[in-house]
Amino acid sequence: QVQLVESGGGSVQAGASLRLACADSGRTLSDYAAAWYRQTPGQEREFVASISGSGGSTFYGDNMKLRFTISRDNAKNTVSLQIDNLKPEDTATYYCAAGPNMWKMDYWGKGTLVTVSS
Length: 118
Hints:
This protein has 118 residues and is mostly beta strands. It is built from no helices and eleven strands. The strands form two sheets. Strands 2, 4, 5, 6, 9, 10 and 11 form a seven-stranded mixed sheet that branches. A four-stranded antiparallel sheet has the order 1-3-8-7, with no helix packed on it.
């Protein structure tokens, strides 16, 4: 069973970088495509990026490709999201997800909070 746990969030100043990590305690994440989403209170969940099971294909949401980089290490059953040049509007809870392909996510983590101050 896939059990996703995110880490790496925190409070940072604008311009900083963060690397979020998603680990699967069930050790099966390498069998799935994965994605990152983010959400702020009162807003719909926003797609950030997805990656194929092999890591060979990636896809980014609108305006995400410049500062966000998704990657995975299947040997460690982890998926990461590098965020550079953080902006206050990046403040959100970031969720890791996994599923059978890059467009369908069946499993979700509980999220990690990123707060960016100006």
